[in-house]
């Protein structure tokens, strides 16, 4: 009988802790003018991150959280959960949309399933360079895309760097012809599926955390990503052929749930938005450092790295993708073209 009572107490205590720990809000009092006291709320939010604790985006998440904590005098605390502790990107986005998670750092790729305009970033060979990407992201067009997530009960706060995506495989991979018939893991959206079809490969949507075992067991032959992701996940151990074609430059996006956003005063909203923008330079610096380290490490590990000197054959192969999907994003494509360095 005593054990049953203790078990019941433990269950009740756990429920209370969960309820009080989810996006908690308390009223704190600060001295106001003339001896009056102004009541300001405190918050504890959760931020979902799929990458490891030392990855550039995770470090930027933490830097953003520190800025918010400092500038709010400790009233607003954001706990960062790395390594997909709160779920892989697609699942975390859904939870942010529902208000169950407050923030997520995600690739723009999966966001296309929630807002079709984000699929523009998946169009192949859209940007020429990192400079070109940032010319667009920091423009009014980039800001409009962040705001457009509001229709999906989310709000974009800032973009982070993610470099250029290229192909890597467990099979020899030295040119376009080697992709034929390979099962390639993709971030699921319509553009990516059509892109793989155009290249003669088989698109295989899969959660990022499952890619290593997928490559190891042969469920997939290949994947595509940037240097840091390829290195940090150990994918180079099971897919030692890396083909640098730079077919996509898909940014990362820091997103807040509208449920959390609408709890905040205008002052706190501006504080959080500004902190997110101010974290960009930190992330870009950490990204550049880690990208260089990752390239050096995988080359030292004996990975066969092949650089595509001329992408014209690749651009020709994917032309049907641009013709099929480009019309949906003509205004954005015009902006991208106008911002070419």
Comma- or semicolon-separated keywords:
341 residues; alpha/beta; D-Maltodextrin-Binding Protein, domain 2; 2 domains; six-stranded mixed β-sheet; four-stranded mixed β-sheet; 16 helices; 12 strands
Any idea of the CATH topology of the largest domain?
Answer: D-Maltodextrin-Binding Protein, domain 2
Whole-number count of domains: 2
Oligomeric status: single chain
CATH class membership of the largest domain? Alpha Beta
CATH-assigned homologous superfamily of the largest domain: Bacterial extracellular solute-binding protein, family 7
Any idea what the radius of gyration is? 22 Å
Question: Brief description of this entry?
Answer:
This protein has 341 residues and is α/β, with parallel strands linked by helices. It contains 16 helices and twelve strands.
Descriptive overview:
GO terms for molecular function: carbohydrate binding. It holds the Pfam family DctP. The structure is a single chain. The chain is α/β, with parallel strands linked by helices and 341 residues long. The chain has 2 domains: 183 residues, Bacterial extracellular solute-binding protein, family 7 (D-Maltodextrin-Binding Protein, domain 2, 3-Layer(aba) Sandwich), CATH 3.40.190.170; 130 residues, D-Maltodextrin-Binding Protein, domain 2 (3-Layer(aba) Sandwich), CATH 3.40.190.170. It is 45% helix and 21% strand. The chain has 16 helices and 12 strands. Strands 1, 2, 3, 4, 5 and 11 form a 6-stranded mixed sheet that branches. A 4-stranded mixed sheet has the order 9-6-10-12. A two-stranded parallel ribbon has the order 7-8. Helix 2 links the parallel strand 2 and strand 3. Helix 2 packs antiparallel against helix 12 and helix 7 packs antiparallel against helix 15. The longest helix is centred in the last third of the chain and has 21 residues.
């Amino acid at each position: 009988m005593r054990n049953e009572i203790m078990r019941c107490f433990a269950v009740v205590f756990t429920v209370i802790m969960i309820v009080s720990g989810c996006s908690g809000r308390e009223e704190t009092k600060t001295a106001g003018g003339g001896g009056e006291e102004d009541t300001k709320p405190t918050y504890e939010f959760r931020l979902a991150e799929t990458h490891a604790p030392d990855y550039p985006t995770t470090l930027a998440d933490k830097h953003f959280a520190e800025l918010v904590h400092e500038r709010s005098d400790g009233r607003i605390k954001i706990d960062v959960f790395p390594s997909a502790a709160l779920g892989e990107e697609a699942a975390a986005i859904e939870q942010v949309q529902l208000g169950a998670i407050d923030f997520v750092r995600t690739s723009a790729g999966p966001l296309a399933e929630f807002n079709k305009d984000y699929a523009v970033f998946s169009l192949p060979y859209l940007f020429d360079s990192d400079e070109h990407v940032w010319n667009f992201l920091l423009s009014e067009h980039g800001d409009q895309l962040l705001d457009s997530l509001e229709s999906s009960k989310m709000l974009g706060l800032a973009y982070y760097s993610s470099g250029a995506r290229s192909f890597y495989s467990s099979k020899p991979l030295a040119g376009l012809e080697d992709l034929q018939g390979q099962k390639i893991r993709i971030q699921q959206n319509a553009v990516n599926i059509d892109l793989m079809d155009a290249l003669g490969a088989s698109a295989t949507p899969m959660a990022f955390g499952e890619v290593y075992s997928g490559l190891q067991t042969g469920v997939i032959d290949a994947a595509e990503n940037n240097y840091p992701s390829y290195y940090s996940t150990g994918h180079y151990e099971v897919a030692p052929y890396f083909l640098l074609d730079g077919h996509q430059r898909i940014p990362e996006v820091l997103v807040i749930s509208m449920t959390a956003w609408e709890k905040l005063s205008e002052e706190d909203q501006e504080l959080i938005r500004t902190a997110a923008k101010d974290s960009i330079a930190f992330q870009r610096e950490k990204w550049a450092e880690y990208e260089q380290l990752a390239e050096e490490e995988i080359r030292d590990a004996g990975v066969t790295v092949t650089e595509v000197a001329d992408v014209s054959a690749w651009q020709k192969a994917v032309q049907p993708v641009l013709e099929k999907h480009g019309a949906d994003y003509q205004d954005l494509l015009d902006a991208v073209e106008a911002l070419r360095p």
